[in-house]
Every structure is written in C-alpha cells, then in structure tokens.
Amino acid sequence: MPPVRYPSRRRRWLVLATLCACHRSQPAAGPAIEVSVTDPGATVSEVEGVTQVVESRCRQAPHVAHLHGVSLEGLSLVTVEFERGTDANATFGAVRDQLRTVRDLLPPAANDPAIQRAPGPEAARYVFRSDVLPLTKLGDMVESSWSSPVAQTAGVGRVVECGDFLPRALVDVDATALAGTGLTITDVATALKAAISPGPGATAGLRVLVLGTANGAPIRLADVAKIVDAGAPPACRAYDEHGAVIETTVRIHQTGDVATVRAALGGLESKARLALPPGVTFQPRPVGRTLVVDLDPDVATASAITLRDVVGGVAGVGPFVVEIGPATDADPRAIARVLLASTDEGTAGRVLAALRNVPFVRGAGEPNATVLLRGADRAALATAAEALYAALAARGELVVRLGTDRHARPVPHVDEALARKLGVSMKDVQLALEARTGKTVATFLTDVRPAPVVLRIDAALDQVFLRGGAGLVPMSAFTSLRAEPVPAALLYEDGFPTVGARVRTKDASGLQHAYTPPADIELRVVPD
To answer: Quick count: other Cβ atoms within 10 Å of Cβ 519?
Structure first.
C-alpha cells in the first residue's frame, strides 16, 4: 500500500487527526476500510454531497457496523467499520463492489474513489533532516529510500508523512498581461493540458509554450506568467528541537503485530542509511506520548515554531517533534500534535502546562474519550456544541473541539443567468474561480513521484476576463465576493451530522451526564 502523500491528499494528516477523534458510537471490533475522494477546488459544502453519496453506497455493503464521514475542502473521507468476525479481504471487495458505479454520481472534477484498509496502531516513528538539501529533495530521498520500501513490508498498514514539500510547477499568471493579449485563463489551462506529458522533464518547455498569436507574433506562456519549480507547502509541517524535519509514522495493519513489524523495520533502517547521502540525518524515535493541541482557527502554520520553542524550553523534555496542520483561508482548521520520545507522565505534564500558557492554544492533552453530539440540524448542533464545550471546560476535561470551527472568508457568488446572458461558459467561470486559489491542470512525473502543474491567477475579479458573446468580459460583471463564515470540516456518524469533543477524563461514564442536549440531539460517549 503506498504511503500517504501531500498535496495529492494534502489534508490527509488533518483528516486522520479528525477521524482518530471520531470513534465508533459502539465498538464494531471488526476491520475498517477508508474511501477517499479528492475534488480539487470544491468547497466543504460541495464535498459534503460527495461524502453523502459514498456513504449511501458503502452502507449497502454486508456486515457494516458504522460509517464515519469527514468533508474538507477538496477532500471527502469515509471510514466503513464492519462487524466483529467479518473477513478483512471480503470487506475490501464488498466496498469496491458498491462503488463500481458511483463515478456517475460524482462531480466531473472529482477523482475516482480510492479504497484502502484503515491502519492499526503506531509501530515506529522516524525523523529525517538535512542541512544541505531543500525539503523537496529530501522528500524524494525519503520516498525512494524509506517510505516506499516500508509501505511494501508485510504487516505495515500505512506510512504517514509530515513535513514533506512535494515538487510542483507553479504557473503564476499576470492578469493584466494576459488581458492585454486577448487570451483568457481558459486558453492558458487548455494549452497547459495539451503540452504536459507524463514523463520526467515534462515542464522543461513551459516557458516557451505558445498560447496563441498577436499581429503574427507568438504569445508565449512566459509573456503572461511566471513559471516556478517550487515545492508545494505541506498540509502538515514538522519541527523537532533542531528545526524543520520530515517525520514518518509507521502504522501496522489492524490485525498486524507491532513487534513483528518493528523487527522488519530494523533491516530496512540499515539499507536506508546506506542509500541516503552525506548530510542527511535519519533517526528512529521511540513511540512515546502524543499530546493533542487545539489551536485558535485563525493562527498560521508558523505557530509551529512558537510551539517548538515552548516545548523545547521545558526542562528534561528530551527529543520531540511538533506537527501542525493547515491554518489558511483554504483550510482554517489548525490542530497540532507534540510527539514525545518520553513515556514519563511528569514530562508530559510539564509540557502540557507550558502549552496551556500559549495564547493561541485553546486546549491540550492526551485524549482518552470522545463526546459526540448527533442530530439532523447542524445549526442546532453548533449551538449545543458550545454548551457542551463550556460544560467540559468547567470539568477540566476539554482537549479539542470537533466539527464546529468556522472561518470568515470571501465566498464568490455567481449570477449564472447574467453570465449566460453575456455568453460566458459556466465551465470557464468555474475554472477561473479555481485558478484564483490554485488549480491543478496537469500532472507530470519527477524521477521519483508525481507532481502537479498548478495554474494560479491571483487577481481581483475585475482583472480576470473570460470570453463572452461580445468579447472579453470581466468576472466582476457577474460575480461578487461576500465575506461569509465557512466550515473547516463537516462530520458525519452513521449518516447523521455530528460535532463533538475529545476529552481527557477519569470518569468516562460520568461524561454521559456532563451535559444534557436538546431532545432532538443525541449525546454519546466513546472511551478509547
């Protein structure tokens, strides 16, 4: 099974963190399958429709015990849990069979569902760093020398990476220069798709790519855009006590054996050290305590450095890694983890005390239970969640909130009737809207792994023109931007909208009475 990658599954770390929080409402104790669908550029609300379609199909598989869905911007992930005693191989086939014809029900831009078995417990952690190589190059080496061989090892269920900058080609279009040529962003996208071949070096000729002609002279891509070969910022950033690193966590199959996998990893470690060049440090880290940190949704990923400094200032903390998820307009949810090599309770306590004094940290701890609110009305759920959080905070048990964060961002509103009246294609409108935040239009292969070609036109609506019936039409003629709160994630459990919290408690049974929700909302407590 291939390792988890970014940015093709650029929010996978966040999704895993969320799913670890959304446990089953009652133990299924059987195998689990994960189904992911990427839909580049889709909003959380649009992805919610994809999640519902996948859930409805997966629910028809035999012996399904529970379904858990997470909708993020551009990514849907559904976890299907089966009853105890169900054959693991049969579950994979059953889900695959149910999804054979789901393609016709998904949006055109969505990718086909990817199906894989859910992983089991952590077996090992590793840290890679280099003082001489950029993270994109280091990531290539980690992929070829470590992640790929480990992913093919018997008993390994998943290799999850944090901190890797994937290679990409960024085509940054100058809206003013493009408008002066009489071409549109659609013309650029069409030319790029036709020009990119799948092999290595596919982007070498992009700068001289001809988009069209003006007065008999060719208009080249470099005339209207900057083409940059740069790593895509990762959805998960990792820092240890010395600086930026790539951290990999090896998880076993659900029915695998940790000791057996660790023994197999020992031989691979030796091979990896021989394959890695001088200047690359490769360190195994003990699987110690994991502290979950709930951050203010408006903080930036740069906050990881602040958290790193705070943790590093704790006396006797030992080796550690701080990981932080995204906090951008595209995906405002920010959850961090502190991976300690130590298993000492006193060390963990000192780190938690330091974290709780950081202004943008809303909660921190080692969760051992989940409190879920489930109902049909998301607005009512959000109101109930705030009351739940207050009750849990008063008990000193709240660690991290689930499924309630919203972030104000400019949301485009298109007058489709007016756009059609002006002769503008809605496909062109959609492409232009996606390009304003970065649209993957093609994929090529580096020496090691796939890389996207991302088309971006970072400009105001009145500077982006599309072809209409009477010539070029500015997008501002039929599109407006309004600041609206948008959800960072939408959660489901067994087909019902869900919110909740991760908690650290000494009395899981008492949590059932910590808060009494309205009659149409169900509260469930699930111990880890």
So the answer is: 7
Rounded CA gap, 485 and 62, in Å?
Answer: 39
- What are the pLDDT digits (tens) for 292-343? 999 887 776 667 789 999 999 999 999 999 998 753 333 344 578 999 999 9
Which residues are CB-contacts of 366 (< 8 A; sequence separation ≥ 6)?
289, 290, 291, 292, 348, 399, 504
Q: Where are the alpha helices (DSSP H) in 203-313?
A: 221-224, 258-275, 303-312
| Cα–Cα distance for residue pair 402/418, rounded to 1 Å | 39
Give CA 484 to chain center in angstroms: 22
Taking the CB of residue 353, how many other CB atoms lie within 10 A of it? 11
CA angle 40, 11, 91 (to 5 degrees): 90
Q: Are 196 and 166 in contact (CB under 8 A)?
A: no
Q: 1-117 sits in which CATH class?
A: alpha beta
Structural domain boundaries in the chain: 1-117, 167-232+408-486, 371-405+502-528
C-alpha separations of 319 from 123, 289, 343, 383, 427 in Å? 18, 11, 11, 41, 51
Query: CA nearest 50: which of 500, 490, 499?
Result: 490
Compute the 3-state secondary structure of the chain and give helix, strand, coil in percent, each to the nearest 5: 30, 35, 35
The CATH classification number of 167-232+408-486 equals 3.30.2090.10
Helix, strand or coil, per DSSP, at residue 191: helix
- Tokens 């600086």 -> residue: 243
Query: Pairing relation of β-strands 166-173 and 450-456?
Result: parallel
Query: 219 burial class (0-12, 13-18, 19+ CB within 10 angstroms)?
Result: buried
- Residue 457, both tokens: 């036109």
Q: Please report, for residues 32, 48, 182, the alpha-carbon distance to residue 229 in angstroms, rounded to integers and kept in the order given.
A: 39, 33, 27
Between helices 185-195 and 426-435, what is the axis angle to 10°? 80
What pLDDT digit, counting tens, does each position of 162-181 carry?
Answer: 888 877 888 999 999 999 99
In this prediction the pTM is 0.81
